[in-house]
Design a protein that fits this description.
The protein has 7 helices and no strands. By secondary structure, the protein is mainly α. The mean pLDDT is 93.
């Protein structure tokens, strides 16, 4: 089994929890969509800050500026980062974090199609360029193959921490929705 398959299997429940947490927001409603984006912004900012400047990672394109532009178009400010869960703070863990935020582009493509054209979708519509996702998965597989058990566990832990960060942000936004 490839390391990416191992990573996917090890984080499946975490991924499902994030999908369930964000699945409560109606993306065809401007208020709900704004809360959805605020929650993403709180988590994404933390993760992208942790990944910035890590030269061990493959090339990736930040999306926080796109998210900030979408929020501004809705009349919302970029929120403070979510303090609930820290992002991975080791090089191997950051590989897991990168897997999560880059994988979210796949879901974003699907979700962007459900957002009315009157609402901004720069963040959700920021899909991978041709071959980008496959290249990242190959790099993660190579990193896993070249690593020991401790490092592979750290990659998985980093992905799980990142999913947990997004799930916590979704939960907080959902609570704000009912205040």
């Amino acid at each position: 089994m490839s390391f990416v398959a191992t990573l996917r299997k090890a984080t499946a429940a975490d991924h499902d929890a994030v999908d369930a947490g964000f699945g409560v927001f109606r993306l065809d409603d401007a208020t709900d969509y704004g809360l959805f984006l605020v929650a993403h912004a709180q988590a994404l900012h933390v993760v992208e800050t942790a990944l910035a400047g890590d030269s061990t990672l493959p090339a990736w394109r930040p999306r926080a500026a796109l998210l900030a532009a979408d929020l501004a178009a809705l009349g919302l400010a970029m929120p403070a980062p979510a303090p609930a869960i820290a992002p991975p703070d080791d090089p191997d863990g950051r590989w897991g974090a990168l897997y999560v935020i880059e994988g979210s582009r796949l879901g974003g493509r699907v979700l962007a199609k459900t957002v009315p054209s009157a609402l901004p979708t720069a963040y959700l519509a920021a899909v991978h360029e041709q071959g980008e996702w496959r290249t990242l998965l190959a790099a993660i597989d190579a990193r896993g193959a070249a690593s020991d058990d401790r490092a592979r566990a750290a990659i998985i832990r980093g992905a799980r921490q990142t999913f947990a960060l997004f799930a916590a942000a979704a939960l907080a936004a959902h609570a704000d929705r009912h205040r």
